Amino acid sequence: MSFEADLAAIEAGIDDLPAETMRLRYKRSWGLDKSLAEMAMARHEDSDLHVYLYESPAAVGDRPKVDFFVDPSVPLEEVAQGSICAVRGWPAVGRAVELVVGAVRLRSATPLRQPLRGPRLGDA
Question: By three-state DSSP, how is residue 45 classified?
């Protein structure tokens, strides 16, 4: 399967998609070309929202299994770092997932990849 086929299956609402729970971290960034004043006034839509997924039983200090970008307009700031989330789809390199954390639902906007470095679980 491909990233595009995975997204189509997720969007079609297929009930028998693989599902599991994982831990979630995220990081919003505005790029290196913006000043602090510009970042303070920037809208979420002008940023990048990077998501990291960890195995559910991950301990403090563990590295993420996969990472990807999502729609930057999603209000993830309401979600605590390290929260458990429901993952529908395929949390593997090159695939796509949909995450559900409380009332927040989001889909991968880019294919999942294996992070070279990512925030350790529990890092500030």
Answer: helix
